[in-house]
């Protein structure tokens, strides 16, 4: 599981992520792609869940998920999260070429 961002647009009472200052030191798009590449070389194909915060708050969430899938990973992003409740069955899965 990779917390792509700590940004979140929900305000769940049991969670304090949204109360924190927005971090300004998140990995860049290229750094995330490099991280997935390194993990792929160390671990082989693995299942990757990209989450947050709310992962889709980052505009590059789909780009990095597609990159990971092209590396041979099975990638899941749970979405949308509305007020802390994931809607039933609402996951997006990316799979690269077999
Ligand atoms: S959606 Fe998740 S990260 Fe966002 S406030 Fe709720 S529990 Fe925290």
Write the layout of secondary structure elements.
Blueprint: E1 2-3, H1 29-43, E2 47-51, H2 61-70, E3 74-78, E4 81-82, E5 85-86, E6 91-95
The site of iron/sulfur cluster has 11 residues, from loops.
Key features of this structure:
2 helices, alpha/beta, 6 strands, 26% helix, 98 residues, binds iron/sulfur cluster, two-stranded antiparallel sheet
Folded structure, characterized:
- It is a single chain.
- The protein has 98 residues and is an alpha/beta fold.
- It has one domain.
- It contains 2 helices and 6 strands, in the order βαβαββββ.
- The protein has helices at residues 29-43, 61-70, and strands at residues 2-3, 47-51, 74-78, 81-82, 85-86, 91-95.
- It has a 4-stranded mixed sheet with strand order 1-2-3-6. A two-stranded antiparallel ribbon has the order 4-5.
- Strand 1 (2-3), helix 1 (29-43) and strand 2 form a beta-alpha-beta unit.
- Helix 1 runs parallel beside helix 2 (61-70).
- The radius of gyration is 14 Å and the shape is globular.
- The model has no long low-confidence stretch (mean pLDDT 84).
- Bound molecules: iron/sulfur cluster.
- Iron/sulfur cluster (SF4) binds at residues 8, 10, 12, 15, 17-18, 52-54, 81, 84.
Q: What would you say about this model in short?
A:
The chain is built from two helices and six strands. By secondary structure, it is an alpha/beta fold.
Task: Write the element-wise H/E pattern from the N-terminal end onward.
Answer: EHEHEEEE
The domain tally reads 1
Q: What does the radius of gyration come to? A: 14 Å
Estimate the helix proportion, in percent.
Answer: 25-40%
Summing up helix and strand content along with how strands pair, one would put the structural category as alpha/beta
Mean pLDDT: 84
User: Could you give the order of strands across the largest sheet?
Assistant: 1-2-3-6
Shape: globular
Present as ligands are: iron/sulfur cluster
State the helix count: 2
Spans of at least 5 consecutive residues with low confidence: none
- The counted number of beta strands is 6
* N→C terminal distance: 22 Å
What does the main sheet amount to? 4 strands, mixed
Beta-strand content bin: 15-25%
